[in-house]
Design brief:
Layout: E1 7-14, E2 31-38, E3 48-57, E4 60-67, H1 74-85, E5 90-93, H2 96-110, E6 122-124, H3 125-131, H4 133-136, H5 143-149, H6 160-173, H7 176-191, H8 205-211, E7 214-218, E8 221-230, E9 233-239, E10 247-250, E11 255-259, E12 262-274, E13 277-282, H9 297-302, E14 304-307, E15 310-311, H10 313-324
Parallel strand pairs: 2-5, 5-6
Antiparallel strand pairs: 1-4, 2-3, 3-4, 7-8, 8-9, 9-12, 10-11, 11-12, 12-13, 13-14, 14-15
Length: 325
């Protein structure tokens, strides 16, 4: 029988700055920072080779790295990481919403592990950067560009593509110098993620609040909802409390995807100016044959989602029930 021994490395470092604006809204100890390295982009035909993460407590960051010493160890590092991430309310990533989390969820499924990372709990600093790129005065969204803006220095000099090449070379030789280069690349990515929270200091409190996931108490359950407005659309990601039939609807004006109780929506808005306030309602006319003006005031209020560009957290649940029913 093959003995599986994954490489796990732990390093502590001091969190120099502890008063980022985000900590006025989210407890530092409730956030897990993580980043993955993979053998390619395909979730079906490639594997996770390295998971790095930082746990924060009392001003100290504990950085851990789970490394596959062989391709057969992927399941073990996935289980190890699962036992850590399930203890956290929020996750911080850079492009985790589009890559890291979907990739990990696909690999959990491929390895027969009954576990899913909830994307609605993700604080994705790439999404934040894209949304506020003009205020941040950036030319692009690349991680190294953001690090340069914040004066962050990294020690490694290799790219993600080079890290993959080094990994396959390491599998043949088990050369420690190759291992050190791979680990350093991921180490810098993870350690430098914490000061990226400095980006939240460069926008207003109101804009930060609209970006962050919301913890909502609903029907005797705590739920985390991620939602944001872009122009005339509302984007929602949440885990539904009730069982819902899986569906995928892709239309020009809207989209609704439901799978394993995970709900993702892109919904059009009607914006109304009233008493010097901007009221944002779901545009029900683009979703159905129902005329907004024919609704009762009570039903109209069920479609009210935001006030002056600030999303009303409880309204998310009202909208979910109204739309899906």
């Amino acid at each position: 029988m093959e003995v599986i021994v994954i490489i796990k490395i732990n390093t502590n470092f001091e969190l120099i700055k502890k008063d980022y604006q985000i900590f006025n809204h989210v407890n530092m100890d409730d956030i897990l920072i993580f980043d993955i390295e993979t053998t390619g982009f395909s979730r079906q035909s490639t594997k996770v080779m390295l998971i790095g993460y930082v746990e924060m407590s009392q001003g100290i960051g504990k950085l851990s790295q789970l490394f596959c010493n062989s391709l057969s160890e992927e399941k073990e590092i996935l289980i190890d990481f699962m036992n850590t991430i399930k203890n956290y309310t929020y996750f911080m990533t850079y492009n985790g919403y589009a890559f890291d989390i979907p990739y990990l969820n696909a690999r959990y499924k491929a390895n027969g592990i009954d576990f899913t990372i909830d994307k609605s709990r993700n604080i994705d600093m790439l999404k934040f950067t894209r949304k506020h790129i003009n205020e941040l005065q950036l030319d692009n969204y690349k991680l190294k560009s953001v690090e340069k803006l914040l004066g962050i220095h990294r020690s490694d000099e290799i790219s993600g593509k080079e890290s993959i090449d080094l990994y396959f070379s390491y599998l043949k030789s088990h050369d420690k110098l190759l291992l050190d280069k791979i680990l350093l690349h991921n180490y810098d990515d993870i350690k430098n993620m914490y000061p990226l929270l400095g980006l939240t200091d460069l926008v207003s409190r109101e804009k930060l609040e609209t970006f962050l996931p919301k913890l909502i108490y609903f029907n005797n359950c705590n739920m985390v909802v991620s939602s944001y407005l872009i122009k005339d659309y509302l984007f929602i990601n949440l885990n539904s409390i009730e069982e819902i039939e899986d569906i995928i609807i892709e239309e020009f004006e809207y989209s609704i995807s439901i799978h394993n109780k995970v709900v993702e929506m892109k919904l059009p808005l009607i914006n109304i100016r009233l008493n010097d306030k901007d009221l944002h309602f779901i545009d029900i006319e683009k979703l159905s044959n129902i005329k907004f003006n024919n609704l009762s005031n009570e039903d109209k209020m069920k479609l009210l989602i935001a006030l002056d560009n600030n999303i009303i957290p409880q309204a998310i649940m009202n909208v979910e029930q109204f739309i899906l029913n």
